[in-house]
Amino acid sequence: MEKTKLSKTAQQLVSLGKGILAADESTPTITKRFKSINTGSTPELRRAYRNILFTTEGLEQYISGVIMYDETIKQKTFEGIPFPK
C-alpha cells in the first residue's frame, strides 16, 4: 500500500533525532517571557529573538518543522527572507 503524502510528511516530521520547534507564542505570552528577563516586547525585539532561533546554523539537522504564530509568519529575517522559508 502506497503511503499518502500526508503520511510521508508526518514521518519526516518525527524522524529520528529531530523534533518540532513550537515557536507559536502569542504576543501576550512572549511579552510575559520577555518581562521575566527585563526585556521589552516590541515587534522588532520579537523579530530579533525569532531571527536568532530561525537562523541558527545547523538548525535543520535537529528541527523538522516549526509551529509559528500569526505575527511570526508575516515577519522576515534580517536578510529579508520570510521566516516560513
Give structural notes:
With 85 residues, this protein is of the alpha+beta class. The chain has one domain. It has helices at 5-13, 27-36, 43-54, 70-74, and strands at residues 19-23, 63-68. It has a two-stranded parallel sheet with strand order 1-2. The longest helix has 12 residues, at 43-54. The protein is elongated, with a radius of gyration of 15 Å. The termini are far apart.
- Summed up, the helix count is 4
Shape: elongated
- Oligomeric form: single chain
Estimate the helix proportion, in percent: 40-55%
Structural class: alpha+beta
Uncertain regions spanning at least 5 consecutive residues: none
Q: How far apart are the termini? A: 32 Å
State Rg.
15 Å
Q: Give the count of structural domains.
A: 1
Summarize the biggest pleated sheet: 2 strands, parallel
Number of strands: 2
Chart the SSEs and their pairings:
Elements: H1 5-13, E1 19-23, H2 27-36, H3 43-54, E2 63-68, H4 70-74
Parallel strand pairs: 1-2
Top keywords for this entry?
single chain, 85 residues, alpha+beta, two-stranded parallel sheet, 2 strands, elongated
